[in-house]
Task: inverse folding
């Protein structure tokens, strides 16, 4: 995630979709206008200090004050206000028709991601990773579970606050495949700087395969939530999804050695906060771990996802992200931590 946010040019100047392109155009206009105003001020200062007497008189005259001090800033600021409000309105319109919908909820300090059908029912849940198809606008329903957060993927759109008790909307769209880093853009507490996520843009067919695989796998595991194998969007009319049976998700009971890891997970209290579809783990306080093995990062974008970081996160999450709501499981020995990590990395 860090690489996607710190490349050059910076994401806000490297749009990967039509919505972010409009924001970038506005940003460049502001930069250009700011440079022009700075130049005018420098010239005016030079005239005031070193200029000929006649120029100084003109600069201090009533006409210059009205034109440069009232008319110019009034017209320019009004135009920018209208431009900005119009752009914001186009990004934040409520849902129209059968647009694809994803609900993202800000938590301290991670993002809950829920894929919705056209009626708004939850189809599946994930965390800190958003998958979208290329060339299709996606409406994000933004909420907060605790304090004010702000959702921002600079490559794909503008940013929007996530406010407790309110639901706001933001459209994103990618015009190329890739992984795009996102952050919380509103200070929300001690670990605000470590609250990130990844948006993954797929070609349409790949996205449909991914979606069908996830929903079919959940159905087999008996997750108890609404299931469908088609993304809830008009774009599903293009092509046909690959059968989900070709790429089933890992079954917990098919992993060598996973029994001890699974048992340790349940016995250690992890199931009280985390949900893993197909098991007795149904906690809702923490991220859904049904597909944790397939995620790119851990800890809301702060660590690459592999067995070593899984062990480190389970054993000492408070050192890695002090104040997060998951306690450090330092009472588990190395073998026990590895067993849980092995089981979790197979949840895909």
Result:
């Amino acid at each position: 995630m860090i690489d996607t946010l710190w490349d050059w040019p910076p994401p806000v100047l490297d749009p990967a979709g039509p919505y972010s392109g409009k924001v970038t155009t506005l940003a460049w206009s502001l930069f250009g206008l700011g440079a022009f105003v700075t130049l005018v001020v420098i010239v005016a200062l030079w005239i005031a200090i070193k200029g000929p007497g006649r120029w100084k008189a003109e600069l201090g005259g009533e006409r210059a004050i009205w034109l440069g001090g009232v008319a110019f800033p009034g017209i320019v600021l009004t135009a920018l206000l209208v431009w900005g409000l119009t752009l914001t309105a186009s990004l934040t319109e409520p849902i129209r028709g059968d647009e694809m919908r994803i609900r993202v909820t800000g938590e301290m300090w991670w993002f809950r991601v829920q894929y919705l059908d056209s009626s708004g029912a939850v189809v599946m849940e994930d965390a800190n990773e958003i998958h979208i198809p290329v060339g299709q606008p996606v409406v994000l329903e933004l909420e907060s579970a605790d304090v004010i957060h702000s959702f921002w993927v600079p490559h794909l759109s503008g940013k929007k606050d996530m406010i407790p008790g309110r639901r706001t909307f933001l459209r994103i769209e990618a015009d190329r495949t890739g992984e795009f880093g996102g952050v919380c853009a509103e200070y929300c507490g001690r670990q605000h700087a470590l609250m990130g996520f990844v948006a993954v843009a797929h070609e349409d067919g790949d996205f449909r395969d991914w979606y069908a695989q996830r929903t079919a796998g959940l159905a087999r595991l008996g997750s108890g939530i609404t299931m469908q194998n088609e993304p809830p969007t008009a774009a599903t009319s293009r092509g046909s999804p690959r059968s989900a049976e070709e790429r089933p998700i890992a079954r917990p009971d098919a992993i060598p050695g996973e029994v001890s890891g699974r048992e340790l997970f349940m016995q250690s209290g992890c199931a009280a906060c985390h949900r893993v579809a197909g098991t007795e783990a149904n906690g809702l306080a923490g991220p859904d771990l049904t597909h944790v093995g397939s995620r790119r990062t851990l800890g809301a974008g702060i660590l690459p996802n592999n067995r070593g970081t899984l062990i480190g996160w389970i054993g000492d999450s408070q050192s890695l992200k002090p104040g997060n709501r998951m306690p450090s499981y330092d009472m588990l020995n190395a073998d026990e931590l590895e067993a849980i990590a092995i089981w979790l990395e197979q949840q895909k």
User: Anything to note?
Assistant: The longest helix spans residues 18-50.
